[in-house]
Design goal:
Strand order of the largest sheet of chain B: 4-3-5-6-11-10
CATH architecture of chain A: Roll
Shape of chain B: globular
Bound molecules: iron/sulfur cluster
CATH superfamily of the domain at 64-170 and 255-299 in chain B: HypD, alpha/beta domain 2
Number of strands of chain A: 5
Number of strands of chain B: 11
Structural class of chain A: alpha+beta
Distance between the termini of chain A: 28 Å
CATH class of the domain at 64-170 and 255-299 in chain B: Alpha Beta
CATH class of chain A: Mainly Beta
Order of helices and strands of chain A: EEEEEH
Distance between the termini of chain B: 32 Å
Number of helices of chain B: 15
Radius of gyration of chain A: 20 Å
Largest sheet of chain A: 5 strands, antiparallel
Oligomer: heterodimer
Strand order of the largest sheet of chain A: 3-2-1-4-5
Largest interface: A-B, 42 and 65 residues
Structural class of chain B: alpha/beta
Helix content of chain B: 25-40%
Amino acid sequence: MCLAIPGKITSISGEDPLLRTGKVDFGGILKEVNLAYVPEAVIGDYVIVHVGFALSRVDEAEAKQIFEYLREMQELGDLQEAGAGAAPAPAPGPSPP
Amino acid sequence: MKYLDEYREAGGTHQLARELARITTRPWLLMEVCGGQTHAIVKFGLDELLPRQVTLLHGPGCPVCVTPLELIDSALELAARPDVIFCSFGDMLRVPGSTTDLLAVKAAGGDVRIVYSPLDAVKLAGQNPAREVVFFAVGFETTAPTTAMAVYQAARQGLRNFSLLVSHVLVPPAIEAILDAPDRRVQGFLAAGHVCAVMGWEEYLPLAAKYQVPIVVTGFEPLDILQGVLMCVRQLESGRAEVENQYRRAVRQAGNSPAQQLIREVFQVTPRKWRGIGEIPRSGLGLRDAYAAFDAERKFGLAGRGVAEPAECQSGLVLQGKIKPHECPAFGTRCTPEHPLGATMVSSEGACAAYYRYRREP
Ligand code: SF4
């Protein structure tokens, strides 16, 4: 029900801020989406879309965080496996902002 | 698809599961609030990747499932009227009312239309001035700004033939009701990411502090969910009870303020009955007096009836995490997705349907 999926804004139209709409690309399928709730979003941005409304702009830098965390964890695991006697403390998880 | 596929990658989920196993020293009971997360957990078998000591309970987070029976009955009554075009999201069509469902009303000639967006219903109202267009406004805070916009635009356009049958519910009061239960077992929560994309996560701070439970705002993909569980267990293991945000790519602390503004403009907080659970104070949204003309219950004189729920269905216990679906005696026998007794068997996000589909053998 709260299903919302990310798509890329390919065009924006509408002068009235409440009627601001755009075409959003979901892996090749284009849909018309109301952009009134993401006034900051521009063409090329990814937005999270729910029942025809963009509710949030995807933050690229934040989106990468988990992969960096996984990579660090992996490297740490490799280090520990290499048998460095005093293993370093485990990497801290992402802390809240 | 970008921002979707990479969060389903199995290597990462296993890595997170290993880390979780490494840090877990005691049994912990967590609850995911959102039905979308329940669906993903059962579909991807994420609960089976968890260490034995970590159990996920499935919460009340499926608005389809908790829409009270009397509102379904009201929907059925409206949909059967010849002057009404009844619009709904697709997942409401098979939810059983006391006697039938919307799909059957449609088959019998009712003008029931599945819409993708509430704005489609506004458009229909503009195109059919001689008919009454009613939209079944179901959903959490995620969906509330979209129906708020529909009403707001209908008001601006001066449409008199558009109204909402409102069944909007709010997440924090439901969490609080679960925390207040004397036999509560839940020790930590995964909060629903898309609800928080709209509302932010500040309203969870007092809950985490008062009940001393960690609450982690979590996304919907396998990597998100496992990281959310990991963050929650890490808090529990170290004795912390904070609100953390796993889903930072989409959720900001203050949420989406234009969306909140429009929700406040159109709706006010009301008590609301949850199917299977009962009334929870201040747990729903209803139209403000200024928008009363768009309230289908008032317009058609429907409000205020009580309907008993089928005694056999234990969905209330399922929704509160007190039993797992397959512990219900009717599960998979007298109750299946083809012949559901309760809404948790109808909606693909209902825990009973998810178990039936992906986990027939418990
Ligand atoms: S299996 Fe059917 S009857 Fe049992 S709790 Fe779930 S929906 Fe209700």
